[in-house]
Amino acid sequence: MINFQTSPDQYKHWKLKIDGPVAQLSMDVQEDATLVEGYKLKLNSYDLGVDIELSDAIQRLRFEHPEVRAVVVTSLKPRIFCAGANIYMLGTSSHAFKVNFCKFTNETRCAMEDDSHHSGRRYIAALNGTASGGGYELAIACDEIYLVDDGNSAVSLPEVPLLGVLPGTGGLTRLVDKRKVRRDRADVFSTLAEGLKGKRAKDWGLINDTFPTSKFQEAIDARIAQVVSLPADENAKVNNLGHMGIKLNPLAFESTDDTRDYKYVSLKLHREKRYADLTVRGPESDLPTTPDDIQELGDNYWALRAFRELDDSLLHLRVNEPEIGLVCLRTEGDIDNVLALDKTLAANRDHWLVREIVLNMARVLRRLDLTAKSFFAIIEPGSCFAGSLLELALSSDRVYMLNNPDQRIEIATSELNAGAFPMSNGLTRLQSRFLAEPEKVDEVLAHKDIFDTEAAEEAGLITFAPDDLDWEDEIRLAIEERTSLSPDALTGMEASLRFAGPETMDTKIYGRLTAWQNWIFQRPNAVGPQGALTNYGKPTQAQFDYKRT
Amino acid sequence: MINFQTSPDQYKHWKLKIDGPVAQLSMDVQEDATLVEGYKLKLNSYDLGVDIELSDAIQRLRFEHPEVRAVVVTSLKPRIFCAGANIYMLGTSSHAFKVNFCKFTNETRCAMEDDSHHSGRRYIAALNGTASGGGYELAIACDEIYLVDDGNSAVSLPEVPLLGVLPGTGGLTRLVDKRKVRRDRADVFSTLAEGLKGKRAKDWGLINDTFPTSKFQEAIDARIAQVVSLPADENAKVNNLGHMGIKLNPLAFESTDDTRDYKYVSLKLHREKRYADLTVRGPESDLPTTPDDIQELGDNYWALRAFRELDDSLLHLRVNEPEIGLVCLRTEGDIDNVLALDKTLAANRDHWLVREIVLNMARVLRRLDLTAKSFFAIIEPGSCFAGSLLELALSSDRVYMLNNPDQRIEIATSELNAGAFPMSNGLTRLQSRFLAEPEKVDEVLAHKDIFDTEAAEEAGLITFAPDDLDWEDEIRLAIEERTSLSPDALTGMEASLRFAGPETMDTKIYGRLTAWQNWIFQRPNAVGPQGALTNYGKPTQAQFDYKRT
């Protein structure tokens, strides 16, 4: 079982050093500390275990070290920054694991960009040695890239020429869409196993600058000094730093073979039927309403804790429960409490901690959108799909709401549905839902009252509203039908239907790039007995079927 | 060998009937007239042969019948409109063929939308019976969809529930992005094998309207009368119809085992080295400069003929020469003649025939962008990469231009590079190239003189400029290197690097949707011995590996 929780005192591969407004995040991968057996993590290559630590470090920077303005990403190994994802790990992994591994590493890099974009923290890749493959992809997720000019160190994307696969952790997309490298140069660079060194790499826009070994540290220090002296972005101000960050404690849960119970989130697996119930319990009624009190409560504050637990549940389901194809999203609690919480969050979004809490909720909801499982929201008496929790229903592939006039079954919107939780495509979930009738977004948001089942159906917020007599059968049948379908066809279908409307760099990475990479990860030319990935590092050579497809 | 040329007198599966401003395009697939053996085209299901005729018909409407304002797409079979791509054909095809088949059918549907968008022809799907799978995808490529209400006929996308694959001919994307069907309803519809009938299909936005059998023809006729009575779009006016359309004659060519020579296009295959030279000869000096004279010349006019030949060559390479991985694009002729031609085209773009000629060039260039082969442009003395032919270089993955001050080696831009040939992403190729420095687009267009090699390199228009001494070795090495790489990795890489910048419905179809479909087409759950596609129509049932990926 893969565990996504960690903390700096447990890190094996990264050192996180905080010095006032500067964090140094240094990669120093321990060869033998692999997630599973069968490979060695040489040359700062990584497996999922290494990336779980990176993801944790970035998350902690946001909550525990809000005073940090610049993050230097570098390596403690001489002459090597990072060699990318470990090839032998990839070569021995199942297809499903490879795909999930890449998705998580992509989410981690997007989280770095989310931090930079929304919280104004500047990520500086200080390449003290060669950055190849995933190593360069990690660098290109940073805001700035500096490469040592030691006559040897290069940046490279050798996946196509050496391995017959893509640089699939956003590399190709960021090359042309983020750094806007000219397409013909991107083509040359991506087919050049040895990559490019200092001057040419700079001329082509692959790095920001290059400095000789003797001046490298000095130049990085100078750039950091510059960054931390710049006035903070208005939206990213770290205000009210009474106690400088809050601690993210481990998420406790109790588990049995088919349940996992956190404080606010419960997971119940129905393995033989290939679905799970994922229940989020809403907030209590006595939550704090001022930033100071929220900060005092820290990671016990519902909005942070419940969504951290939800995040951990989603990762657990993805990686440890591959045969669960459908997740029924449920909520329990009081709608008024959720709406009160949302009101507090909306009123205090300019406070650093509230901002981070809301941004984290947005990231978790995007993780849900990107999870390759079907989601049905099930709305019954006692549920609290309102405001921030209504997003769970809006993220779902379908929404079932019981229609029984004798019971209170209600949903509601809040101010937070109006823009606090953008999807990867930049739209809110309401905008995405009402692409055909954009005026409905405002209508639904303007409706300040709750929606009962009929009103919700009329407003277009739910898919089906079976009555009491049909409810159980209909839900049971819907679950049976869904879980009987081809899991691959569902993954491709959901990835297509969930992201109507505009595309962004993020959706290009999770859509176009990832889908092509997954295709290649299935092709004999990569993973067959004669494939390039299979034969990497062996005396045998790859033999391709040269038919172009 | 698959031949993409046909004409209405040779059609086996479609009837094209022109009646003044109305065309009726009726599907009547002949079961036994299949492209290859091994399946029967029952229930108006189609194979590539059927779609080649459809593509031809749409192309002819634009050139031969410019007076047509409304195109009714319907079926001559009772109670069935179209059952989509033939499953047995898909089940027995190679992966590469399936992928190329889907790409061509996608291009044909995009060509219908291109006609509607740019030439104002209204496509009306008159569903006189059930439209399932690719049948509904054909309908959704039309502007309006009307379904007979006979108690039986439905629209459906049964691919996911019945076959374990996607509706991959744009269906999922057009559902949520063109018709903007709500995502949860799209989810239900795409998993419902039997689809939806009249009223609900209309309520959900899947069709525009539904009429009982007795009133169906009358309603369609009324709608046609309405469409043809509307004033024509200003940009789509069919003016100057002196001789009402021009004839598209068959493209003659001579071929040997490794050459194919059309009038203006020559293809030379180097099969053992897995690359081809594709040479376009530029226009003569004495081309007509008025619309009347161009119309007189008809399909012999260079801009039409050369690009039709180029189109045919690309399709031939895709389907009949799968092992050719790289195409070296070359031109021969006089730059001034190309510039003179572009001037004529630019000056007369409001004439219907010139408009159609330019739109056709744009479509052919998009076909090139979407071809899963590498393209290198090779610029040598005697070449004429100017204006419309410069687009060949701008479409290429790399551009090599000989640097020899003793010879005339030149390229040039024309007004047509400024917007006449949009890529699928909506940008011009110059905009796509200079995403990092958008001001360069105007600079390059403002440069009225030719560019010699040094100026071209300085302007960022070429990739490499080897001198005389290195030229041959460098080109030979570049070819050898390129053709040694994994063809699958190259396909995924090129699909990622060619389309920087915004995404459109078209790029979503060719990127996200197609890549997922290709992935699924490789998965054992679809094509393995227990897969759904393999077992369709057999007494055996599909058995899935339910791991979600």
Q: Assembly type of the shown chains?
A: homodimer
Major sheet of chain A, described briefly? 7 strands, mixed
Tally of contiguous helical segments of chain A: 22
Largest interface: A-B, 93 and 93 residues
Shape of chain A: globular
Residue share in helix of chain A: 40-55%
The gyration radius over C-alpha positions of chain A equals 24 Å
Summarize the structure in words.
2 copies of one chain form a homodimer. Chain A is globular. Chain A is of the alpha/beta class and 549 residues long. The two termini of chain A are 37 Å apart. Chain A contains 22 helices and 21 strands. In chain A, α4 packs parallel to α6. In chain A, the strands form 5 sheets. A 7-stranded mixed sheet of chain A has the order 13-14-15-16-17-18-19, with helices on both faces. Chains A and B meet through α3, α5, α6, α7 and α18 of A and α3, α5, α6, α7 and α18 of B.
Write the layout of secondary structure elements.
The structure is a homodimer of 549-residue chains.
Chain A: E1 14-19, E2 22-27, E3 45-46, H1 48-64, E4 70-75, E5 79-82, E6 84-85, H2 87-92, H3 95-119, E7 122-127, E8 129-132, H4 134-140, E9 144-149, E10 154-156, H5 159-163, H6 171-178, H7 183-190, E11 196-197, H8 198-203, E12 209-212, H9 213-229, E13 254-255, E14 259-261, E15 265-270, E16 275-281, H10 291-297, H11 302-320, E17 326-332, H12 335-347, H13 352-369, E18 374-379, H14 390-395, E19 398-401, E20 410-411, H15 429-433, H16 439-446, E21 451-452, H17 453-459, H18 468-484, H19 487-497, H20 505-520, H21 524-527, H22 532-535
Parallel strand pairs in A: 2-4, 3-6, 4-7, 5-8, 7-9, 8-10, 9-12, 16-17, 17-18, 18-19
Antiparallel strand pairs in A: 1-2, 10-11, 13-14, 14-15, 15-16, 20-21
Helix pairs in contact in A: 1-3, 3-13, 3-20, 4-6, 6-20, 11-13
